[in-house]
Amino acid sequence: MIIKFNDELTKQEIYANGDELARIMGQDKDEKGKRTYTHAKEKKEHIITFENPILMTDNHKISQLEPAKRDTLFALYGSHTKITEYDGVSLEFEQRKYLGVWGPSIDTMLFCKALKNEDLTNVKTAVEVGFGSGFISKYLLSKAPNLEEMTMIDLNPNTRECAETNIDDKRAKILIGDAQKLLKGKKYDLIVCNPPYIPRPKSIDDNAYEGVGLLHYLIKNAKELLTEKGTLITNISNLCEDIALQTIEESKANMNKLTSLEVPLKVYNVLNNPEWMKYLLEEKGLKQERKNGYDYWQAIEIMKIKTTKEKKKKLNNLEYISTKERDAYIESVKHELNKKDHSGNYFAASIGLVMISGILMFFNPLISMSAAITGISTALLGDRKSTLISKKNEKQMEKTKKELNKLYK
Predict the structure, then answer these.
(1) Cα–Cα distance, 284 to 393 (Å, whole number)
(2) Mean pLDDT of 50-79
(3) What percent of the chain has pLDDT above 90?
(4) 351 conformational bin, left if phi > 0, alpha if psi -120 to 50, beta if neither
(5) What is the rounded CA–CA span in Å between residue 232 and residue 127?
(6) pLDDT score of 318
(7) Which one, of 397, 388, 389, 372, lies nearest residue 340 by Cα?
């Protein structure tokens, strides 16, 4: 079985391949009409394409299909071997062969999507902590043009066989053991980690490789583990965002969101643990809402963390603003709106504020701020002059809008 994603993770293609063609797809005769039970692994047949995937295996989506297609897919997902493909990188994984190893998940694909949009030219040394199947490390080996050494660390000894089966590259260095000990005294240009990210009570004080202890450790010690301009890229859930932000603040690091995706919570050991679920619902903001066949939802977010301050960036002579400055700006706009009575236009302005908040979450705060000013001005005043920006800045706003438009192309 082959599971292939497009670059933007908006499509998930499912293929039957190899022996599945004879066993499931009815291709059980060769060219001479004789019975066959095998086909080359490279031979495949497209079964279905899912739009906007939120899981690697979406049982609900599959169950909504017509019976023959539904049962065919369930049979394929029951196959022992699965090949995952993204952006020209593929990995073959067999769960029963690599006990205790996590195969590629939707998190893995989202992580690689974030890496795809990063400039990796200055990365010479990298380490993946908790490499599991090895997909992310293999992706870096393929996409970082100047990478000289890719260190891969995991506690589970079965990960070694999986990695060695899929990665034939002398730059890959596999280490089995406690990452906190193996990382000591080392520095890397890039650290990547797709860690456990579902918090549980006392997880930081307990086992560092469950809950969010590993995430906490990496953020807290990033300065000691990274080179001067090094970067930590990690995955967190909105369920543990408060812990991550607190650790970021304590370590005086900088964190930016690269991409995110709302997904169902589909970890059975959590779902079937009433005490854990109560904790997540009551204290960590787990969202309970029946939609698309699932009751519980979280946002997984790929974060970029740096411990050194970068020079302020400029766009059209306007400076980059911090998150605090961004929030203060939004509050000031709200204050101005509350002072004005624009009747019907007030509703439009409120919608504009919602759109602003969304934009500011995903784009450079500067560009977002400028677009927000333009949007609010339009919502409030229509074709009248904006009271929020001066004539002197109107030309500047037009230039900024053009820059913003480039980002959407």
Answers:
(1) 43
(2) 96
(3) 66
(4) alpha
(5) 10
(6) 37
(7) 388
Residue 95's pLDDT band, with cuts at 50, 70 and 90, is confident
User: How far, in Å, CA of 159 to CA of 132, rounded?
Assistant: 6
Average pLDDT, the chain: 83
What is the token pair recorded at 69? 């297609």
The domains of the chain, with CATH numbers, are 2-79 (no CATH), 100-306 (3.40.50.150), 314-408 (no CATH)
Strand partners, 375: none
CA distance linking residue 315 with residue 334, whole number of Å: 25
Q: How far apart are CA 182 and CA 199, in angstroms?
A: 24
Which residues have C-beta within 8 Å of that of residue 34, sequence separation ≥ 6? none
State mean pLDDT over 279-301. Answer: 93
Tens of pLDDT, residues 298-344: 999 999 999 976 554 443 333 334 444 445 555 665 555 555 444 44
CA torsion 62-67-68-70 (nearest 10°) is: 10
Distance of alpha carbon 352 from alpha carbon 113, whole angstroms: 29
Contact predicate 284/295, CB 8 Å: no
- Tell me the two tokens of residue 300: 């997984």
Centroid of chain to Cα 214: 17
Give the contacts of 161 (CB within 8 A, at least 6 positions apart).
Answer: 97, 98
The C-alpha torsion from 401 through 403 and 408 to 409, rounded to 10°, is 120
Beta carbons of 151 and 191 less than 8 angstroms apart = no
**Amino acid identity of 22?**
A
| Tokens 């650290």 -> residue | 191
Structure tokens at 355: 């759109």
pTM: 0.76
